[in-house]
UniProtKB/TrEMBL annotation:
<dbReference type="InterPro" id="IPR000587">
    <property type="entry name" value="Creatinase_N"/>
</dbReference>
<dbReference type="Pfam" id="PF16189">
    <property type="entry name" value="Creatinase_N_2"/>
</dbReference>
<dbReference type="Pfam" id="PF16188">
    <property type="entry name" value="Peptidase_M24_C"/>
</dbReference>
<feature type="domain" description="Peptidase M24 C-terminal">
    <location>
        <begin position="531"/>
        <end position="591"/>
    </location>
</feature>
<feature type="domain" description="Creatinase N-terminal">
    <location>
        <begin position="8"/>
        <end position="139"/>
    </location>
</feature>
<dbReference type="InterPro" id="IPR000994">
    <property type="entry name" value="Pept_M24"/>
</dbReference>
<dbReference type="GO" id="GO:0070006">
    <property type="term" value="F:metalloaminopeptidase activity"/>
</dbReference>
<dbReference type="GO" id="GO:0046872">
    <property type="term" value="F:metal ion binding"/>
</dbReference>
<dbReference type="Pfam" id="PF01321">
    <property type="entry name" value="Creatinase_N"/>
</dbReference>
<dbReference type="InterPro" id="IPR032416">
    <property type="entry name" value="Peptidase_M24_C"/>
</dbReference>
<dbReference type="Pfam" id="PF00557">
    <property type="entry name" value="Peptidase_M24"/>
</dbReference>
<dbReference type="InterPro" id="IPR033740">
    <property type="entry name" value="Pept_M24B"/>
</dbReference>
<protein>
    <submittedName>
        <fullName>Aminopeptidase P family protein</fullName>
    </submittedName>
</protein>
<dbReference type="InterPro" id="IPR036005">
    <property type="entry name" value="Creatinase/aminopeptidase-like"/>
</dbReference>
<keyword id="KW-0479">Metal-binding</keyword>
<keyword id="KW-0378">Hydrolase</keyword>
<dbReference type="InterPro" id="IPR029149">
    <property type="entry name" value="Creatin/AminoP/Spt16_N"/>
</dbReference>
Length: 593
C-alpha cells in the first residue's frame, strides 16, 4: 500500500487548527489541468493514489477516495482501506458521502483555485440539507504540512515557430479580439495552460508529457494580451517573440489584476476558469460574460500547416512503432521481456526520430491481465513478464515539434484463444466502421460513438471509456472540445479537428484489447446531397493479423484493412530500418493471402 497515515494525520492537525471538520482534495491545479506538475500532486501525497483522475475528502475521523471505472483495480493496489475508504464516484459520489459522514453544521474546506463555480453550486446545494458549511480556505492546508513539496517549475518558456503553428500570435490575438468585441467583452480570462500556449505560440516543460508553461493570461478586445508569468521563465528571446502587443507581468499579479477590473466586461468560462477567478471578478464589480474560452475552438481546428505537421509527425512515429513491433516479434517469443523493458525499447525507437521532444503521456505497457486496465501505468512494483500465449497491449505517443501522436496496438505473443480472436475482431470492426463513417456537417461526436460499439454490443459486451478524444498540435494529447463518447459534448465535429478512434474490450483478470489510430476531420468532397465530413487517417503501423477471425469480417472490412496496410507499407517501408523491412512486408500483406 502507498498510503502514508502520517500524511493524513498531519492534514487533520492542520484542519483542526483552522477550525475545519474536513477538506476536499481534487486532482487538478489552478489551471484546471488534467495532468498536473509534481507540486500539485496533493491527492497522491495524502492518499497514495497515483492515477490521473480522482478526488478525495478527509474528515477528522475518516476519509474516502473516489475514482472512475479506469482505476477501480489500481486504487485497491495503492490506497489502504484501513485508513481511506475506496469508492466508484458514480456508485457513491463524493458529495453524498461527505453529507452522510459529516455532522450537522460541519465546516468543510476547499481550495477555490482547484474548483469550478459549477462544482461550488453543487456542493452548497448538497450541503444545505444538513446545514454543512462549504468554506473557501486561504492557502491550501496540504501545502502547509507537505514539508518536501516540490517547488513550482521555473524552466524557461520558449517560442514555438510560426513555421509549425501556421499563424502568428498577433494574428491569433486579432481573431480573439474580434470574438470579444462580438460578445461585448473588454477582455477574456485565459487560464488553461494549453490555451495560453496556443494563443501566444509558446511552449514549455512545466508539465510532464505536455509542452506547456505555467502562466495566466488576459486577452483584450484591442488585440493586445497580458501574460502573467514568473519572471525567471522569461528570456530575451521570449520577449522578442512576444513583441509589443503583449505585456509581460509577474504571475503573482494575476489575481490583483482581476481585482482591478471594476466596470469592465470580462469573458469567463465556467468550465475552465477556477472559482477564485469568478470570486475575484465579482468582488471587484466586473460584469461577467459567461462564454467558452475563445481559444478552445480555434485551437481544435487545425490550420493547413498544423494538418501537414500532424501527417508528417505520424509517419515518423509510425516508423518508430513499426520498428518496435518488429523487435517485439523477434524478442518476445524468446522470453525474458517484461513491461518496463518493452516500454523503454519503444522510447528508444522513438528517440531515433527527428523533432521528438517528449512522450505525449506515460506509456501504457500492459501484459496479460494488466492489459484489462485501460489506464494501467507500469512501475517497478507492478512490472510483469510478457508471456507466451498472452496479449500485450501498448498505448503510447510522442510530442514532436510538428504534431502530437497517440497510438495503441494489441499483440498476441504466441497463440490466441478463440475468445481473444473474437473480441479483437469485434474491436477491429468497430474501429473500421468509425473510420469509414461519413456524417453531416453539424454532427457532434456523441452521435458517432455507438458506431464503434455495435460489433461488441452484438456479443453482449462493451467498454467503459470514450471512443475518441481530441488531440492538440504539439500540445495536450487530450484536447477539447471535440469528443466521441456516449456522454460527449454537443460541439459539432469540424474540419481540421484531430481525434482518436479507440474502441476496446477488457476482461478483468485476463486480458485487454484496444486499437487506436488518430484521425482528422475533413470534407468528404463532391457527390453528396448534404455537405458531409469524414475522417482522414493519420496513424500508420501494422495491426496484428494473428488476432483476427477472418470469418467474422465482411468483404468491405477486409478491403479496408488490406488498403490500410498497403498505405502503411508505402509510407513506412522507405524509412524503416533494413532489418525490419521483411517483417513489415509480411505484417502488411493482404489478409486473405
Amino acid at each position: 500500500m502507498a498510503t502514508n497515515p502520517a500524511h493524513l494525520e498531519a492534514l487533520r492537525g492542520e484542519l483542526k487548527a483552522r477550525g475545519l471538520d474536513g477538506f476536499i482534495i481534487p486532482l487538478t491545479d489552478e489551471h484546471m489541468s488534467e495532468y498536473v506538475g509534481a507540486y500539485a500532486q496533493r491527492l497522491a501525497w495524502v492518499t497514495g493514489f497515483n492515477g490521473s483522475a480522482g478526488n478525495a475528502v478527509v474528515l477528522l475521523d475518516k476519509a474516502a477516495i473516489f475514482v472512475d471505472g479506469r482505476y477501480t483495480v489500481q486504487v485497491v493496489d495503492e490506497v489502504d482501506d484501513k485508513y481511506i475508504e475506496r469508492h466508484h464516484f458514480e456508485k457513491f459520489p463524493l458529495l453524498k458521502w461527505t453529507v452522510e459522514k459529516s455532522a450537522k453544521g460541519a465546516k468543510i474546506g476547499y481550495d477555490q483555485e482547484l474548483a469550478t463555480v459549477a462544482w461550488e453550486a453543487l456542493a452548497r446545494e448538497a450541503f444545505a440539507m444538513k446545514g454543512i458549511e462549504l468554506v473557501a480556505v486561504e492557502g491550501n492546508p496540504i501545502d502547509a504540512v507537505w514539508a518536501d513539496q516540490p517547488a513550482a517549475p521555473l524552466a524557461p518558456a520558449v517560442a514555438h515557430s510560426d513555421g509549425y503553428t501556421g499563424e502568428s500570435a498577433s494574428e491569433k490575438r486579432t481573431r480573439i479580439a474580434s470574438d470579444l468585441k462580438a460578445a461585448g467583452a473588454d477582455a477574456a480570462v485565459i487560464t488553461m495552460l494549453d490555451s495560453v500556449a496556443w494563443a501566444f505560440n509558446i511552449r514549455g516543460t512545466d508539465v510532464s508529457n505536455t509542452p506547456v508553461t505555467h502562466a495566466f493570461a488576459l486577452m483584450n478586445a484591442d488585440g493586445t494580451g497580458d501574460l502573467f508569468i514568473n519572471e525567471a521563465k522569461v528570456t530575451d528571446a521570449l520577449r522578442t517573440h512576444l513583441g509589443n502587443g503583449v505585456r509581460l507581468r509577474p504571475r503573482d499579479e494575476f489575481y490583483p489584476a482581476l481585482a482591478g477590473m471594476k466596470g469592465k466586461s470580462v469573458l469567463v468560462d465556467r468550465a475552465t476558469n477556477n472559482a477564485k477567478v469568478f470570486a475575484t471578478l465579482k468582488a471587484a464589480g466586473a460584469k461577467l460574460i459567461e462564454e467558452k474560452d475563445p481559444c478552445v475552438l480555434m485551437k481544435a481546428r487545425k490550420n493547413r500547416v498544423e494538418q501537414q505537421g500532424a501527417r508528417d509527425a505520424h509517419v515518423r512515429d509510425g516508423v518508430a512503432v513499426s520498428e518496435f513491433l518488429h523487435w517485439l516479434s523477434v524478442e518476445a517469443p524468446k522470453g525474458g521481456l517484461d513491461e518496463l523493458k518493452a516500454a523503454d525499447k519503444l522510447w528508444a525507437f522513438r528517440q531515433k526520430q527527428g523533432m521528438l521532444k517528449d512522450k505525449s503521456f506515460d506509456t501504457i505497457s500492459a501484459a496479460g491481465p494488466h492489459a484489462a486496465l485501460p489506464h494501467y501505468r507500469v512501475s517497478p512494483e507492478s512490472n510483469r513478464p510478457i508471456k507466451i500465449d498472452e496479449i500485450y497491449l501498448v498505448d503510447s505517443g510522442g510530442q514532436y515539434l510538428d504534431g502530437t501522436t497517440d497510438i495503441t496496438r494489441t499483440i498476441i505473443v504466441g497463440t490466441p484463444s478463440d475468445e481473444m480472436k473474437d473480441r479483437f475482431t469485434r474491436v477491429l470492426r468497430g474501429h473500421i466502421a468509425l473510420s469509414q463513417t461519413r456524417f453531416p456537417i453539424g454532427t457532434a461526436g456523441r452521435a458517432l460513438d455507438s458506431i464503434a460499439r455495435r460489433p461488441l454490443w452484438e456479443a453482449g459486451v462493451d467498454y467503459d471509456h470514450g471512443t475518441g478524444h481530441g488531440v492538440g498540435s504539439y500540445l495536450s494529447v487530450h484536447e477539447g472540445p471535440q469528443r466521441i463518447a456516449k456522454f460527449g459534448t454537443d460541439v459539432p465535429l469540424a474540419e481540421g479537428m484531430i481525434l482518436s478512434n479507440e474502441p476496446g474490450y477488457y476482461k478483468v483478470g485476463a486480458y485487454g484489447i484496444r486499437i487506436e489510430n488518430l484521425v482528422m476531420v475533413q470534407p468528404v468532397g463532391e457527390g453528396t446531397e448534404w455537405p458531409m465530413l469524414g475522417f482522414e487517417n493519420l496513424t500508420w503501423a501494422p495491426i496484428d493479423k494473428n488476432l483476427i477471425d477472418v470469418a467474422q469480417m465482411s468483404a468491405s472490412e477486409i478491403a479496408w484493412l488490406d488498403g490500410y496496410h498497403t498505405e502503411v507499407r508505402q509510407r513506412i517501408a522507405p524509412l524503416i530500418a533494413e532489418e525490419a523491412k521483411a517483417w513489415l512486408m509480411e505484417a502488411t500483406a493482404p489478409l486473405a493471402a
